[in-house]
Amino acid sequence: MSRIFLRSCQVYLIAGINRFLAFIVQPVAGYVADRYQGRSIILGGLMMTVVFIPLSGIAGNYWIIVRAWPVRVLSVR
Q1: Where is the Major facilitator superfamily (MFS) profile domain positioned along the sequence (predicted)?
Q2: DSSP characters over the chain
Q3: CA 27 to CA 25: how far, in whole Å?
């Protein structure tokens, strides 16, 4: 954490945002996957993951990560 200059509370906040958004997104994503073609949804989520996880690694500061994290959470579900 010291290498990217994040305090513990900032890391915990990011983890909390992840769990909270997963709580909201997972039921909706499950419904959409059951209702429509699941393969295209899985591939779309995989492609978003491939794009957004590396981008979070090159983020310039903490607030960029916090603002971009909801999109990343959507891509993994």
Answers
A1: 1-77
A2: -TTTT--HHHHHHHHHHHHHHHHHHHHHHHHHHHHS-HHHHHHHHHHHHHHHHHHHHT-SSHHHHHHHHHHHHHHH-
A3: 6
Burial group, residue 33, by CB count within 10 angstroms (0-12, 13-18, 19+): middle
Q: Count of H helices and E strands in the chain? A: 3, 0
Rg of the Cα trace of the chain?
A: 14
Query: Which one-letter amino acid corresponds to residue 39?
Result: R
| Ordered per-residue pLDDT tens for the chain, 77 residues | 546 677 888 888 878 887 887 888 888 878 888 888 777 777 887 887 788 777 777 777 777 777 776 666 665 55
